[in-house]
């Protein structure tokens, strides 16, 4: 099972609630959910999804009669004693959904008088049911019971999600390719033909997609992760078309020099061509462009860290060293011409300090695990983030 790539994992959780929870407990929560997803693929498994939905609805109704108010009178909690009593009399499907370890983890996350925030339980139930239902829908499009190809997933998006949109995108086929491109990128599978269904379901990315459609259809505030909205797709396609001055459906290195008004590191942009699947003419297609956009938009993810590491690993030896950092830094004066403080030696030293670089360099694994990797990649790839970092203390 891949490591979760997005925070928060459960898409409808309120962001300010997540901030109060310790990372270890949240990671335990995610592992618990991942294990629950794996059960979907167990041999000889017998589960009626409709029965699970019915049992869950009844359980949540009962749960809401056992709540207590928090100190502010805005949050509902269920004391663990009342929850355990409810679970004792619940169907086995509910007991399996909330085993003792999961309950203990939810108590740690909530951190309030041995009680659990009811929202957490509701979201866990909702997300598990979504995974169960989506698995059944995905199977006809999957290569087998465990994997689905990018083309199969595009067909799935076209058949199940595009028809739900009140305002359909200008090019439904491009929207499907765009959405699947984002999904494959975030699942760290941009070079693979298939993704594992367990990784797709545990990521909850299709749930994010549905939330985006629901928000746009009903004129609601868009979710925090709004990348699947038609508006975001339209912006990406418009940007691609504006750069495509030759109108041939691909982008040449010359055309890409104008990407984001030319405020990106030219060395980085050149490397994008070298690490992407390109045409014989050496041009980027829409999919490769979406990969770049996703890498920039989701710079705090593991997939983006790997993408940027590969771009700056000029030698291709799996190690980022001082020479490579200096080479990339040489381009800073070109896209930060008005900044007189760009001294390559000083910049290289700052970047080395960010990564705690030693004489042997830093490996891809260590780079991905470094908390400063997103700051490093932003500083070195584009003027906006470079300027933000330089002015952080002003």
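-> sequence recovered:
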């Amino acid at each position: 099972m891949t490591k979760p790539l997005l925070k928060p994992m459960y898409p409808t959780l309120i962001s300010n609630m997540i901030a109060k929870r310790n990372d270890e407990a949240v990671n335990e929560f995610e592992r618990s959910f991942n294990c629950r997803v794996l059960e979907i693929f167990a041999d000889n498994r017998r589960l009626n999804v409709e029965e699970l939905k019915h049992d869950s609805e009844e359980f949540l109704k009962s749960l809401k009669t056992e709540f207590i108010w928090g100190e502010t009178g805005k949050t509902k909690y269920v004391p663990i004693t009342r929850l355990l009593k409810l679970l004792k009399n619940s169907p086995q499907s509910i007991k399996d959904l909330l085993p003792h370890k999961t309950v203990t983890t939810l108590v740690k996350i909530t951190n309030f008088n041995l009680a659990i925030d009811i929202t957490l339980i509701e979201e866990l139930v909702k997300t598990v049911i979504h995974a169960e239902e989506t698995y059944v829908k995905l199977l006809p499009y999957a290569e087998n019971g465990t994997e689905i190809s990018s083309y199969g997933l595009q067909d799935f998006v076209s058949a199940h999600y595009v028809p739900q949109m009140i305002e359909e995108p200008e090019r439904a086929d491009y929207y499907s390719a765009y959405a699947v491109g984002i999904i494959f990128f975030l699942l760290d599978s941009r070079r693979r033909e298939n993704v594992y269904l367990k990784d797709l379901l545990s990521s909850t990315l299709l749930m994010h997609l549905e939330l985006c459609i629901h928000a746009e259809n009903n004129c609601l505030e868009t979710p925090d992760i709004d990348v699947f909205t038609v508006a975001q797709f339209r912006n990406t396609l418009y940007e691609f078309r504006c750069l495509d001055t030759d109108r041939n459906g691909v982008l040449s290195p010359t055309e890409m020099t104008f990407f984001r008004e030319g405020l990106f590191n030219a060395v980085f942009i050149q490397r994008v061509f070298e690490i992407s699947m390109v045409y014989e003419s050496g041009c980027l297609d829409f999919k490769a462009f979406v990969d770049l956009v996703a890498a920039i938009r989701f710079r705090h993810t593991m997939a983006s860290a790997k993408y940027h590491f590969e771009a700056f690993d000029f030698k291709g030896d799996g190690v980022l060293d001082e020479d490579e950092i200096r080479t990339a830094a040489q381009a800073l004066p070109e896209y930060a011409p008005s900044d007189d403080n760009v001294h390559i030696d000083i910049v290289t030293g700052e970047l080395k300090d960010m990564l705690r670089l030693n004489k042997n360099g830093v490996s891809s694994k260590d780079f991905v695990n470094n908390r400063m990797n997103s700051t490093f990649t932003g500083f070195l790839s584009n003027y906006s983030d470079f300027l933000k970092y330089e002015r952080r203390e002003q």
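The radius of gyration is 23 Å.
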